[in-house]
Amino acid sequence: MFRRIAPLGIAAVAGLIATGAVASDIDIINAPEIDVSGSAVAQGWYIRGDLGYSGWTKGGKPDYTVSAPGGAVASRESFDSARFSDDFSYGVGAGYQFNDVFRADLTTDFFSGDLRGDSNIAAPCSGAEPAGTSCGFNHRADYSAINIMANGYIDIGTFAGFTPYVGLGAGVTRVSWDDLNSQAFCVSGGAACSGTAYGGDVLEGYDSWRFTYALMAGATVDITERLKLDIGYRFSDTAGGRMFRYGAAERGWGATGAKGRDDGFQKHEFRVGFRIPTW
């Protein structure tokens, strides 16, 4: 009997082994493919270059101190109007793409422009003018600036080839004011001006570092795998600071330090640039 059962057992075991082997082959055939090479992830260093146009630059009205003989303060005045010119900017930077969502960079931008304004003080321009007149001034000064910013961006997602983003930046701006040119003229009031023509005065400008922050929004377009076009808008706000020094006459009276201070300026810029990834 043992001889009859043994062959049956061996056949059953062989059948189970064969069935397991077939099932194993089927599982292998149906198993999903695994990419051991890894998937491409946006990560690595990049460099960038940008051009900007400020269609609207606005700042507060500069203020200044009028000194009297002996160094005393005669009055504190402010510009009645202040008009900043539109300006272009250009800059470069380097950054790092951490993933598909977040990137950060350090940028340096250069720009320049001019400020025109006018002001009026209650006192006559000189002893040649009668009481009841006041002295008006036309002002003009050029400036240049270098801006250094640390920026962070959130890439929202890619839609029809465009990747919109928002960003925030903070840093410093070195504003270098050229000499302020002021042209005095008499303004009639309770009395008429004598008609005397007055020469201009040149007041030495200041250089100063100011805090700046910026808000950005825009979109990126992949031109090629190694070149990205960046089109965006940036609002930046630069703090106020020293603008110009006292003239020779007021320094002779003992006035020291800054005569005038600007109230900073805000820029609304349209910007276009390129980013070159290194990965």
Helical region count? 2
Helix content: 10-25%
Class inferred from helices and paired strands: mainly beta
- CATH topology grouping: Porin
Please, how many domains? Answer: 1
Structure summary, number of beta strands: 15
Largest sheet: 8 strands, antiparallel, barrel
Strand order of the biggest β-sheet: 1-5-6-7-8-11-12-15
Catalogue the unreliable spans: 1-29, 31-39
**Distance between the terminal alpha carbons, to the nearest Å?**
75 Å
Care to describe what's here?
With 279 residues, the chain is mainly beta. The protein has a single domain, classed as Porin, CATH 2.40.160. The chain has helices spanning 2-30, 248-252; strands at 44-59, 63-67, 73-78, 81-84, 87-97, 102-121, 134-155, 162-177, 180-187, 200-203, 207-224, 227-238, 241-245, 258-262, 265-277. The strands form two sheets. An eight-stranded antiparallel beta barrel has the order 1-5-6-7-8-11-12-15. Strands 3-2-14-13 form a four-stranded antiparallel β-sheet, with no helix packed on it. The longest helix is centred in the N-terminal third of the chain and has 29 residues, at 2-30. The protein is elongated and about 75 Å long. The model is unreliable at 1-29 and 31-39 (pLDDT under 50).
